[in-house]
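To whoever is covering the structure queue this week,

Two jobs came back overnight. Logging them here so there's a record in the thread.

Job A:
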Amino acid sequence: MLDTERLVLPPPDPLNLPLGALEVGCTGHWELLNVPGAPESTLPHGLPPCAPDLQQEAEQLFLSSPAWLPLHGVEHSARKWQRKRDPWSLLAALGAPVPSDLQAQRHPTTGQILGYKEVLLENTNLSATTSLSLRRPPGPASQSLWGNPTQYPFWPGGMDEPTMTDLSTREEAEEEIDFEKGEVAVSEEGPAGRCWLWAAADAVAADAVPLVRSSDLLTVPPGFKKGVDFAPKDHQAPVSGLLSLSCLLEPLDLSGGDEEDKAEPAGGPGGDTASASLCSAPLGRASSLEDLVLKEASTIASPLEPPKPAPQEQWAVPVDVTSPVGDFYRLIPQPAFQWAFEPDVFQKQAILHLEQHDSVFVAAHTSAGKTVVAEYAIALAQKHMTRTIYTSPIKALSNQKFRDFRNTFGDVGLLTGDVQLHPEASCLIMTTEILRSMLYSGSDVIRDLEWVIFDEVHYINDAERGVVWEEVLIMLPDHVSIILLSATVPNALEFADWIGRLKRRQIYVISTVARPVPLEHYLFTGNSPKTQGELFLLLDSRGAFHTKGYYAAVEAKKERMSKHAQTFGAKQPTHQGGPAQDRGVYLSLLASLRARAQLPVVVFTFSRGRCDEQASGLTSLDLTTSSEKSEIHLFLQRCLARLRGSDRQLPQVLHMSELLRRGLGVHHSGILPILKEIVEMLFSRGLVKVLFATETFAMGVNMPARTVVFDSMRKHDGSTFRDLLPGEYVQMAGRAGRRGLDPTGTVILLCKGRVPEMADLHRMMMGKPSQLQSQFRLTYTMILNLLRVDALRVEDMMKRSFSEFPSRKDSKAHEEALAELTKRLGALEEADVTGQLADLPEYYSWGEELTETRNMIQRRIMESVNGLKSLSTGRVVVVKNEEHHNALGVILQVSSNTSRVFTTLILCDKPVVSESPRDKGPTTPDVPYPEDLVGFKLFLPEGPCEHTVAKLQPGDVAAISTKVLRVNGEKISEDFSRRQQPKFRKDPPLAAVTTAVQELLRLAQAHPSGPPTLDPVNDLQLKDVSVVEGGLRARKLEELIRGAQCVHSPRFPAQYLKLRERRQIQKEMERLSFLLSDQSLLLLPEYHQRVEVLRTLGYVDEAGTVKLAGRVACAMSSHELLLTELMFDNALSTLRPEEIAALLSGLVCQSPGDPGDQLPSTLKQGVERVKAVAKRIGEVQVACGLNQTVEEFVGELNFGLVEVVYEWARGMPFSELAGLSGTPEGLVVRCIQRLAEMCRSLRGAARLVGEPVLGAKMETAATLLRRDIVFAASLYTQ
């Protein structure tokens, strides 16, 4: 730097004047100061240097002498620091927490220390990554809201959480008994450091030798067959079957103890109840201690009395809403919340149960006031200083509820995919998917949670998202109470019973079918001003169906059609659904409603395009006054002011503004979110008179209208056109009628073409709503989230799902039945299978297998075309059912409908009119001999031959003979029916009947072991492998049965009955054990297939431990496998942020389409790579046995908006995106919003695996997407 030029002053004179100089600025101007001192300057370094001098200095320092730079100094390049060797540091480890402590035992009166007892400590070393307990310490503050994918969830309610007491008393030595080899193995040590040994009576009887693992304390002395327990008497008793040496020696009086010890009761404090019972039992003399032990062991193993069956558990408790709650204010003198109106009876009933902290299920019609229950729960949580979570099925409903609850309570927060407002509030509103993510991630918000409110629970029927509701209900901890709000459903008790059994708490079901505003349903057939009065009442407010109104509508439509045919020709179409006719229908309808003061009206149209067409066609309709126009204009200006200039000029914004000024509105998924909110707010203010909406509007908050109109009663559900379901119709029709304003609500169905059939209308309007059905399915995210937690199993999640509820609700009864059968089996005497009876077990097994094989073959015959053709009139068959056992019959008639029924003449012994159950026919012989098993052993009447005519199902035919009789089936049936009347009962049968009966009797006598039957392979041409192999196996079994030796023993009948009883009990026990096991789960095969997919892709190892890729997949919200594979294949790391966002749009876009040819080459290659990865995953799924084909898996990707997203991420205004794709603006916005959520989840996953570059790119991509109208703040949150 250049030296500063300073003014040289003369030395101070002797007078030493108090003066000083100050240089001002860099212009050379000086000022005198009256302060003595050296000259100063206002600049730190005097005059600034000139540019040439700086350049010369830089050249001299950095270019002329580069050695000055530290880069070229090599004297420190080889510098290093010697590490001190400390091998002992490798052995240092953090001290484990002390698992136990010593607790002093004091005298209860004096407090004197009598001794010390070791007690196990709880909550040692608990953390969010090792424990599911609520007693674990909270995680970091930054993760308290969302949790972390690496954290464990909290223990689900209803499942038994193991406590330290349970762990200390639970027997950890799992005994493995092989009854065939007679071995007993002890695998693990007990908690106190010793080895428990179980005594099994069956193993003792078989002289089993225990294989005991060596430990510090041996419990089996040399030469003994059983172990003993050396624990002191005051130790906690092990389970029954563990022998106590001190107890065994007491009766022998070997110790000579004092009287005080003898007076001590065996079952005193700290004693052992089981040991007391053992010691009190008298013991006889024994020649050795070993015999004494064996006798004692056999005594212990004797079966105990079964416990009394528990009373029937009632988890779903219906509440009577018809009786008034007169003492409501006496029971709740200071309610947590008060309304300006008097609550209804069902609302009071729900509030009473909420005060008792009960869980409730409220099912009521739309607009009945279910939100009152939710409001009281929120107020109750604020009073208790706890928290409430309100879940909704859609994001728009969450925003609306946030506005309503914030205005009511103030302390309300909102959590959606892209918005996070007041997360510390006592009431949080969110979608169900976010609550599921918080539960799996172990969010600390769950700790303070008192209520979870599920709104629109009937949304559980949604095939795509219904599984989320079940997952959340299963994963909620035990301290959380549940409030379910739903429309009326027929199986509310069943659903509540499932939740009650799931959570082991009673659910109070409060259901009401009463409407606060009754509805009247009409048919409208008009299409012009002349016919605008053609409105016909079909269903009145009392629920009565008016057929007169229906026929009047049919006649009016028929008269107009006949006039049309006379004018334009008879071959003209009866209905032309064009825009012109729709315009005429709506103009006449709205004129009629306007004249009757029945506006506002909601028109439900099941097509986005038709909504826009119908609203745009009413150009001449203006329903607002000048003051309303001014209010609408000001509201629009205020709401649209937050948009940028170009976004305010979007065609949809301009068009919607013009419609709204005339009192018209459109509401569907293709509308921009901010415009939908404007329409909703104006409609709630009464400024929108006519609203054309799709079905999603009925899912919103309470926005009732005076009238609801259905454009049609048919809709497309994604696969086909169908009529509206009763539940869908009721949900949308419930928007009619404003409480406190309208005496009745009006529902109108337009008849643009023909009038619908009366049966269809009756079913839609008065049918039962759809039941709540389980949509539970396995997802990879669910499997990985549960596999990473050792204490939770996917099988438990499947067991507790609503789909398994019908088969699992009787589990307790099955367990009791299994215990009873086990007791019966132990009391049964073993069958003697020695000597000539050695093959008795095989004989029984052969007979059972032969019967099952024949039944299988017969089922296949009855399912085949040739088998049914052979059962024609005159065919002789063998009948076997409850009334007849191997009786011959001849087919008289065959029904022609789908379910075949065969009218058959059958031989019988006595008339079937007898009421005695013994007279219904011969019973199966108790002991089957070879001739009974190999043949049919046809029924032969003992006395006079009788006959009957019965209708048989295909399963009643045991065999089809080769014989065909000539019979007049119709004549025989009529004669038998006539003789069943009391007047003709004694009349003789016709000759045709007698001839047929005599022919059947002759066949039975000629072939007592059964007539020749049709061969399924040769005669019926059944080439199925199972049938062919079954026939060969049946012939082999017949040979084995004929050669059995046990049947020649005189003891065969008695021993066979004993064996059969044991085998039947064992078979029933196997069935019950199967029902209680995981193997009976419906989704278990698919679970194994999906785990195999994860194992093949490297997400879990052979032991089921989740690996790094699996933990990354847990952090994904959707398409977890595809996103993880793309990340680990480095398919995204080399792309720019806007290119990554464009490619990922194919995973979230819902509108199918082609990416187009205008894409850059990088994006084209990226699309192909994504498809290739998806194809590879699909092939792995197919190889592992999943039903989804590769084409279906790849077909889930839609790349129609790749170019739109790419240009948006590059900064293109939204107004210019419309020309790139024909997709509605609302769907484009939804795609970009979901894409931003996916980018954030990928950012978190990249940080999890240590990919900072990819994480930064995903952060940049999310930032590029979040701008302008796409992410404009919701009007409900302002």
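Job B:
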Amino acid sequence: MVVIKELSPSYPLYDVFLSFRGVDTRLSFVDHLYHALMDANLRTFLDDDEIETGDDLRPELKRAIKGSRASVIVLSTNYASSTWCLDELVLILEQRLTSGQLVIPIFYHVEPTHVRKQESSFGVAMEEHKRRLLEAKTNTEKRSQVAEKINRWSKALTEVAQLKGKDAKGRKETEFIGEIVTNIYRRLGGHLHSTLPLLFGMEDPIEFITSWLKDRSTHAADILTISGMGGVGKTSLARYVHGLHCCLFDKSSFIESISEKCDAKRNGLLDLQKQLFDDISKSSKFQAHDTISCTSMIENGLNRKKVLIVLDSIDSIEQLHLLLGKQGFHPGSKIIITTKEVSLPERYAPINPIVKPKHSKLLLKGLNIEASLQLLSHHAFMSHRLKEGYEEVAKQVMVYCEGHPLALKVLAESLYNKTITEWEDCILRLKEEPDLRIMKVLQMSFDSMQSNNDKELFKHIACFFVGTDRGFMETILNSCGIRTIGIRNLIDRCLLTVGPDNILMMHQLIQEMGRDVVRRESPDRPEERSRLCCDKESLTVLEENKGTRNIKGLFLDTQKLEKDTLCGSIELETDVLSNMPNLKLLKLNYVQLNGSYKNFPKGLRWLCMHGFPFNSIPLDLPMENLVSLDMSYSNIETFDLSYSNPQPPTKRQKVTQCRSKDKRLLGSLKILDLSFSEQLRSLGGFFELCALERLYVTNCPSLSEICESVDQSVELVYINLSYCKNLKKIPKTIGRLKKVRTLLLDGCGLSELPMKMMDMDLHDVLKAKIFLSIKSQTTSSANMPSDFKFGMTSLVSSNYFPLEKNNLSNLSFTMASLPSSLVFLSLANSNLSNESFPMDLSSLSMLKELCLDGNPIVSMPNCLRTLPRIQTLSMSNCLKLISVEHPPCTLTRLNLYSNYWKPNYKNLLRKIAFNPEMAPLELIADRNLLAPSSFEIEGMIKIQPMEDVKRSLLRRLGWRTLKFTEDRYMVTNYNYGGSEESQIQMYYEFGIFSTIYKAMAMPDWIFISCSQTAISFTIPQYHKKLRGLNFCIRGDLFEIPKIRIRNITKNLTWIYKHFIRSFSVCRESLIYASHWMFGMNEMQVGDKIIINLEKCGDDLIHMCGMGLAYDSGQMNEGPTLDEDFKKYFTDKKYVKYRDPINRFIKDWWGISVLDDGSIKNEDPLEYYKSWNHIIGGDLSAFQLVTGEYFLHSVDFLRNLFSSASPNAHFKERTVLFKTFSPTMANIAERLNGCEDSGPAGLKSLCIGRLSIVFIWHNLPVQLG
């Protein structure tokens, strides 16, 4: 079912918004002005409601202001007495700053100075507002908010009075109004609301171009290229933004349909030059009679003015040079170019320009479903909604159009006021013959290509290669004499895209256009065409034996034919192909061929025969020129063509004979695919496959043997043996291949990885001797390191060397004999545990991607750190994974995503830790990765039991006391992972510490508290440095509300959504305590701060409060040591007490006592401050708008998922995760891994200044 909702089209609602005081001017001046504006075709908003209700502006007024291109503010005597007028004024001035709205103040019988200084009637009105509004508010917070609002009104009046406006004093009203209308018309550039094109679904491109036009960050002139396939909306978008923003420039020009006009008229380009010169020049004397002279005149104009130029439909670099010249532009100028060839504008480079232009690109890809529905409904039903009953046929039309605006418009207009039956008939016709109006527009890109080779390449791809691998296509077509270098040209002209995994992608209408070009070679006789890609037509040609020499490619897949087309299984004679001598590409899927294969076309390059019925390949099949052979889903049992050679070569002969490819049955074969062949048992004869580059043998459950001759296919670059479950070992000779870049062994039943021999150093030999000595004397090896134990055990059990001790000097041990040239290795779903990996993988020196998905590993294997170039590591769906610690620093992508789900399943992962020098990382994971207790992703979130938190850390937070009840457990609900009972935890994320516990009273370090859900205050003067802010909530909480902290002074906002979603507790009072680490850049003396709780039940919040935390003046408020106590550190006879005492002091005070008795201060916050993505650090990935940040740990994972907040719209779409701040990485490196919790038997108690009782293994020791 199609769900339809009404959307607003992406164009301004009004040309002009009128802001006025009704009692002064509604029935006189404003009424006359409104009608004059409307008569001038300026769409104007006038509020007819004279009654002001409520404290805030009505939503329709806000929408009208934001949707207008200009605002006229009629400042009359009683204007300031209306709070609505003042609110309108504030919003209008905001739009002036943010969106460039044109603002024209009209001083209607008032003095501008009275407005600016709030004197006379304006002063009286402002004083009355202060008195009335402030007296009505008894709550401190609300009084503060009112005072802030009045201050905004005052600033707005001052600002508007300083703008260049118009004074009505002494003017005739009709002349004055005419002057205002003329001024607005001129400054809007004459492009009014009614003349702008109607656009749907273009909000994002409009926002992008608007931001680009208003960008003044550099003094350069900028060039923007808008590209996309024909009919996608390039011209309409360019015309729209030009009409919307041309008033921001000294001069502007829109030159439309340049390539078409140049082709249609001999002097077409000269006419266009004249139009451009007239638009940017004040002179009306155009005396040039040739394009060169005219270009010189245009260059002079472009150098002297800040201009906006739109050049639509450029298709050659000569057109750019003649229209823009080569001398450059005035600083701040903007040039928009629409073209079907993306790279063309980049070749435009002015000679010695005043400023070098900066190039940007915008690619239009079509409309989404909602915008497509709206456009279709608008043109087919003249409505924003579909007519009832048309949902299914509309869906079919949208599937055909794939978001193409022109196609939707053309078909919708042709179906206007038509019945559902007529819609269905139209859809059926489109399947047989495309609409010529759509094809004509799309074919312009094809026709403009100068190279016949590129046109042939396009037709081949449109007919046969959409959805295939780019490398696969290039290999086949290069062998057919097609130069595939032209693929760059197709991409530039938006005829083709290359998607993920190098897959060729083409818009359905573009593909249909390409096939239509082939169809029109011979509309009524398919056999005369160069290519046959329609299964029905191919079957007809073959059954009637009408093949001709014109046919270069023929595809037939009987499984795609409709049942009524087939009369049982398809059986054909091999002779039907004998009349096609130029046939190069042949696909006959699930076709029974009878007869001799010797008459097959000898020029075949690609042969695809899925479901081949025989158990072996016919020897009379001419395969000498085959480049690709696809026998997937076949009944083949053995693939080994070496038996066709009456004298199989010896090992010495193999390499020599491989040099003579013409003597090989498959000497030209580069791609072999035998996937899903359930009967395939063995694979061999590789010396016949000297040119083989890509081998696909996946999902062959019977395959148990691959010949050791695989090393004779020396050109292999890609091997896929995935899910051959009966394959117990791979050939040892595979390691001899020098060019293999990709090896996939997913889901194979490998019992072991083959090992190869290399010299060991003396240290490893000694280890081996010890191991073998133990092995020969006892059956236990429990004391051996697990990775070494596994490696040596594998080596011994594999019989690679005897156990005699006199052979130990020749031992070697390293990774499996895998090709050292590997770049991508996949071992997914192979039942590999940590013990399955060797100690060292450094021999895979070129490896960049490693996939270990679905394996029962519990931690990241240590050997992965020996991979010198690894960039991508995937451990998705590793359900037993507990930790990932210190992955290689070269890693740029880590995938821990898991789609496994069962009721009550809990993710086991508890710790992810990184090295300080780690590069920025793309972390791929799902929300269920996160756990509610004893969990850490270093740099993102750290959760630990409160009893493990050092007391020195709590003291630094200003948390002098935390009075927990005896019940130290709580049930928490987190993200999407259900609930879990755990101890009370300390949470740390984004520079914010927090905890939740049961208590009846607020902590004593909270200084300001109230019973409301908002607190406002000004940071007071204090003699110590501000360290942070403590904020607490007490109430019957079951869900932690979002906390919004705003620094009004610095215009900074942080919206924090806690990691824990809710609690499962009885109606008991809970305390949520948090500490926010703010620095001088975020908060300082005199800053106005407002804290709000969002989405919370007011009746559940009993109280909230805050307190400021300051430094003590010295790093720690710890003790000083007297001389008697120092002896425990300086006297050797007390050395056994030194470490336990030091651990206790460090835990409590955050200091260390050195050997000489001196104290070394250590800041317990230093490590937490070293994290990168914290307040005061890099929060750019969490920025909504400038200065406003939405902080929620789940959004670290938004590379896969959208934000948890439905309204969150981040400036950056993805997060590049970096654990530590670059400036703090050395601190992290020093502190990381230095945690020492001390012996388990040590308990401590602090009494007085430093009177400590230690209980060490039940032996009391009195100190102090």
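Note for Job B: The two ends are 80 Å apart (CA to CA).

Please reply-all if you pick these up so we don't duplicate work.
Q.
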